[in-house]
TrEMBL record, chains A, B, C, D, E, F:
InterPro entries for the chain: AhpD-like (IPR029032), AhpD_core (IPR004675), CMD-like (IPR003779)
Highest taxon, organism lineage: Bacteria
Pfam family for this entry, one: CMD
Residues covered by the Carboxymuconolactone decarboxylase-like domain: 46-124
Record protein name field: Carboxymuconolactone decarboxylase family protein
Organism whose genome encodes this protein: Hoeflea algicola
Length: 137, 137, 137, 137, 137, 137
């Protein structure tokens, strides 16, 4: 099921072709996953989204690639995005996530799901030591 | 604001005292943050929650302690838990999170928030290659 | 903090006065909590909302009043509505919720928060026996 | 998959028939979409829900019909309701939403998804100028 | 679709077998639903989750078994967990939930969904009488 | 409360100053709201976010400015972002949202909150006519 189908010849649009070419070159594969094909109906949205993914996830930085993917999985689970849970879990595995790490990732996500709800239910006041406005931090 | 206040002498309950003592010993500090004080009205819930936190977050494992806290922050943001965002951001800093890492963590959380909504809006079909039931994985 | 303040003389509007009078009569109290005062700027929205609350929560039915409030608390926690968590926790107490029941309610909400995220993370397939379209149910 | 199937002869219930007849008359079509057929097991819930939809979405008002549907899509995406995303995206198209407008709608939803998470992660304090209680507004 | 498939011989792991045996004995059935089979790849996570479910949902307590399941359904709907909505709706029916109760449960969940969003949109201030920190409660 | 405070002299960073100058020029005001001041610790994140806001919300397009803000409010409510609900409700008013429109906006958000939860609870199957993959659309 989907709300919209990609057209038959997406890359006849020059902007779409440029993004798809960059995805192929960056990832060193011919495979374009559905997310990009579904965004292609709006080339500006496609360009902005790919540029941001490349900048945030793709560039070498202070967080290693596998950790980035595990954080992406965690947010996608909490936001309940079926597509994103599948694609980023696969990406985390492709970047080396072991079964042990996957089990731990789930354990943290599940525990956070629980303590998030407990703190919200009790409306626990934030300790002053955690509040930067009370710390001069 | 809160839905319930902790009583005046929480540690007069032996089970509460045992948990609080273990928190102090494990964390090597006298500070007991509000989450635990607010859970103390139900000693069984307090015990179970602390035991799980100690097991999942506290034990040496295949995910390093800072990464665990950053994942905890990510889930807490997506679940919108004010208390948890504050406490786990503080914990991540205490475990060495730099400003650069904090900025990147936010960038990933924000990007995931965006792509999660785009994929949900378009109801993008999961690529077969991401679906374990089609992979024999 | 709020996005809008109620006007100084809400009951000068006849429709608002009628709803407020009905709230007082139904609840046998002069107290009108903020939710209704904030909705009063749009009398049609106020009327529809109060009518539905009275119908769904107020009428004798197959679910007892305390259980209804506990369900309301549970949804409000999961949806993260600060005002609603406070007001419905107070209402549940007013209807007799004990400390033991409150502790159990939190335990269920917390456990559901955890297992919800685990099932979503793993994208566990629904067992055919739980799917009415496969049961003739 | 579903948790419950509609019975074989829903309109043998007079209240259900009356609602279905009103849906057909209001929308000038014989098509009754699944939402209403699934709600029919509880005629009171069906009646209340249809009455509210007719009042809020169907009546001429200060927000035009297409804008209402686009707002409905936006909330349904953020709340992650698969059925509602499909039905309201289709309804927006039926009311004239162009591809350009759909692309922009997604761009706003996605951007909001991102900035919502950033503001929550940073726990940005509300500027006094945005707070009605500090403005006498 | 799923992110991971259970292995072919889950009970060759002694810890998994012990949990599955306990599920069968506790529930007096040979049926192990998918949730447990999917968690089995991480025996520690499986054990912790089952132990908590048994403790929170399975033990006689101050909230009756049917009410517990209805609360579980309510949280699962608000958290949007497809698997959990199916499994806990089925469990509630198995524990005696009538059609009338199901209709009312949905009515409360739906109404809470609405008033939660209204209170959040208006940022309605919590009445002091609902705030335990202002009540000495 | 906040997890981090902006430094004392944000515009000593040239990239931050450039963004702030552009905000002032674009909005024709000296006022920089907190969101931007809080993002300034990470100039790249600040730049990307402002560029996207300017592109998506600020440019003339197929959706008028007031409608864009109302959609932004709707998503922010559903995602439960306190800061964003305040800032975008204020922005919608600044762009001409009337009290009648605000009431209707809330009515749609509230109704969607309700029907979203009902459709999720019942797991209503998507009608084939709403599914583009069955329509050749």
């Amino acid at each position: 099921m989907t709300t919209q189908l990609p057209g038959p010849d997406l890359e006849s649009d020059a902007r779409v072709k440029a993004v798809f070419d960059d995805i192929r070159a960056t990832r060193k594969t011919d495979f374009i996953n559905n997310m990009w094909r579904w965004l292609a109906f709006d080339p500006a949205l496609l360009e902005r989204t790919w540029t941001e993914v490349k900048e945030v996830v793709g560039k070498p930085s202070s967080i290693d690639p596998l950790t980035k993917e595990m954080i992406y999985v965690a947010v996608s689970v909490a936001n309940n995005c079926t597509y994103c849970v599948h694609s980023h879990t696969a990406a985390a595995r492709a970047k080396g996530m072991t079964e042990a790490q996957y089990g731990e990732l789930l354990a943290i996500i599940g525990l956070a799901g629980k303590t998030n709800q407990l703190a919200t239910a009790l409306q626990v006041p934030v300790d002053p030591v955690f509040d930067a406005s009370q710390q001069g931090a």
